[in-house]
Amino acid sequence: MLRLSSRLMKCWKLSKCLQERECSFVNQRYKYLLKNTGLLTISNFASKVLVFLLVPLYTSVLSTEEYGIYDLIVSTVSLLYPLLTLNIVDAVMRFTMDKDADKKQVAYIGIRYVGISVLVIAMGLIPCHFLRIFESIHGLEIMILLYYVSYVMNQYFIQLAKGLEKVSCMAIAGIIGTVVMLGGNILFLLVFHWQLKGFMLANILAQAIPALYFFIKLHFLRFIKDMKLDKELGKEMLQYCFPLIFSTIGWWINSASDRYAVSYLVGIGANGILSVAYKIPSILNVFVGMFGQAWQISAIKEYGEKQSGEFYAESFTFINMIMCLGCSALVFLSKPLASILYAKDFYVAWQYAPFLIVSAVFNTASGLLGPILSAKKDSKAMARSAIYGAVINIILNIVLIIWIGVQGATIATAVSAFVIYYVRKRAVGAGIKIEKEYKIMLMWILLCIQSLLEIYTKLWPAEMIIFFIIIVLNYAIIHKFIHSVYLMLFTKHSQGK
């Protein structure tokens, strides 16, 4: 009897020990995610908020046409970047994170394609300058080339640092970019009065100097010194990233094609107003962007590990709940925020913000699923979702802009963003099982209703009711999250005492 009791006690102790180990392992996941999110928040929060706070400066110094031209330049570069680099930087991040990866070879292959893309765009822009092919950008060709170089190099180093899990390095680079952006805007816009060229130069330096920091901090010369091309690895990386070209193009169409449609069908000044309207949803993107980079690292790192599906589902649900709450508040405040942020000529942009805010929520949901598909190396599913969304976006842009004007572009963006989410969710499948998904869907419907009320009526009490309903729907998950974080941070410390 005593032996049996002793064995049972040993089994109980062993079971308890295994549970504690499992709990500790799970907690480490969230600690790692929270740590990286915190580091990136410190670095990126200031820069994102700065961009938002500088809107009054931009709208007072630049005309609607100048801002429209700048926005088209940025949109065009964001399209050319994945095409000319074959989206290799995404492969750099993903393959660097493989445990048995030859990190130097991966980085070397990546920089070769980046360098080729710079040569290609230089060969295209220089003739444009002398032949005056595009009158709207004549005299800006060198600026556009410098912007492309600084942008693509900064993106390359960010993805490399992400793959190497050098999150602190990314954080410092973000702070440097913020300081340079602020100083550049003050100097070039307020002191020298260089207007559009000054605005572009500030953006160029805000990317070039952080890229230089990455170059030094990562000791990048060791990645490319005396390296010979591994053709087999290069082929494998291209097989992974090639479908992502279509994914990126599709994503670009969903986020930027409305600029071209509005410019052509309504006018470039209208595009300037629409571009400014995107600044209010950028408040949400501030927080999403910081979490998204940390989430990408964690999602790939945890893929295939025990309870990874639960980790994915809980993180997905919490972020979506918080986004819905922030979205509802922002839709309600879109008009007063516009009166503070926008100069007189841009004030009408407030009416285009609500559905852009809703689309930011859908983009967040699909953006959380993207790294899971990346972890599976299922780049085809990512491409498929983006292409479906792009087709819907193009069709709706043409139809709705002709029918209801600029507002049609915002609705098209929201619908296509939801389509991308839906396709990605089906592709992920059993990899992420969301409890009470109907709550998220209900909140999305409520947000669409609130957006219509904000744009076309003055029924602010109805908007307030929707906001409080969303708070009630969020209460349980927020309470659970706060409780989990408390236990994760303090339970072990208390037990030690």
Q: Can you describe what's shown?
A:
This protein is mostly helical and 497 residues long. The chain is 85% helix and 0% strand. The model is unreliable at 10-26 and 493-497 (pLDDT under 50). It has helices at residues 2-53, 55-61, 64-85, 88-96, 103-131, 141-163, 167-191, 195-217, 221-224, 231-265, 268-277, 282-302, 308-341, 353-375, 379-404, 406-428, 437-456, 460-496. It has 2 domains: 38-229, no CATH class; 247-492, no CATH class. The two termini are 36 Å apart. The protein is built from 18 helices and no strands. Helix 12 (282-302) packs parallel to helix 14 (353-375).
Major sheet attributes: none
Main structural class: mainly alpha
Number of beta strands: 0
Helix share, percent: over 70%
Shape: globular
Keywords:
497 residues, mainly alpha, 2 domains, 18 helices, disordered C terminus
Write the SSE topology.
Elements: H1 2-53, H2 55-61, H3 64-85, H4 88-96, H5 103-131, H6 141-163, H7 167-191, H8 195-217, H9 221-224, H10 231-265, H11 268-277, H12 282-302, H13 308-341, H14 353-375, H15 379-404, H16 406-428, H17 437-456, H18 460-496
How do you describe this structure in short?
With 497 residues, the protein is mainly α. The chain has 18 helices and no strands.
